[in-house]
Specification:
3 domains; 9 strands; LysM_dom_sf; LysM1-like; LysM domain-containing protein
Length: 230
């Protein structure tokens, strides 16, 4: 797609019209006012970056040209330090839909981007948000934790808490007490998050695995208990 005549060449995001207005309804538009709203800018901004649009407030974009729609990305404030990927809020998506498009829950999205506020009240189109983390620690962790670990990313979804509790010799109640965001039903445990698995002076308790039959199929040798007392 060729660049519109005179469009700035130092833009952060370019658009090949039309712009998506609502991902659910599939509605689109080429109107300047709709495009500006979709990226959190003004019509004046669009006209400044794309002189071919003229000065009329009722301008529209040609589907045969590419336009600058966001010259500078507005980074969201207070993004978690565990963030490893940021993306601009996509046009046509509300907060829940944007989070879902990256395979994350809205509750997670808000935790990683606290500036969006409760219920995503401050979510803004055109702003940049964290959409992936590594080593994120949920609020409420026990203060004196001295060892953290991540869930097994291959089978965590089947037994999320049990795997960590077994590995580190933890009783379920203790694990939840140290990591309250996990919740008693383990609904709050996620891969690539870090969880507390030890505190000073804690002594893990490991469950002895059940005796397995010998590989030959022969019955196991039974040693009389009294033989150990001789």
């Amino acid at each position: 797609m060729p660049m519109a005549n005179g469009t700035t060449n130092d833009c952060s995001i370019y658009l090949d019209p039309p712009v998506l207005l609502n991902v659910t309804a599939g509605t689109t538009s080429t109107e300047c006012s709709d495009v500006a709203a979709a990226y959190g800018v003004t019509v004046g901004n669009l006209q400044e970056w794309n002189p071919s649009l003229g000065n009329s407030s009722s301008c529209s974009l040609s589907v045969k040209s590419r336009y600058c729609v966001l010259r500078f990305v507005n980074a969201a404030l207070n993004v978690t330090s565990a963030c490893i990927q940021r993306e601009v809020a996509a046009p046509g998506y509300d907060c829940d839909q944007f989070a879902g498009s990256w395979g994350i829950e809205t509750e997670q999205f808000i935790a990683w981007n606290p500036a969006v506020g409760p219920g995503c009240a401050n979510y803004k189109l055109g702003a940049q948000y964290c959409v992936a983390v590594y080593g994120f620690r949920q609020p409420g962790l026990v203060a004196n934790c001295n060892k953290f670990a991540m869930p097994n990313t291959t089978s965590w979804i089947n037994r999320p808490c049990e795997i960590m509790e077994t590995t580190f010799g933890l009783q379920h109640a203790r694990f939840v007490a140290w990591n309250p965001a996990v919740k008693d039903n383990c609904a709050g445990i996620y891969p690539l998050y870090e969880y507390c698995v030890s505190i000073p002076n804690f002594k893990p308790t490991y469950t002895t695995p059940a005796t397995q039959p010998p590989p030959t199929g022969r019955p196991p040798t039974v040693v009389p208990i009294e033989s150990f007392s001789r």
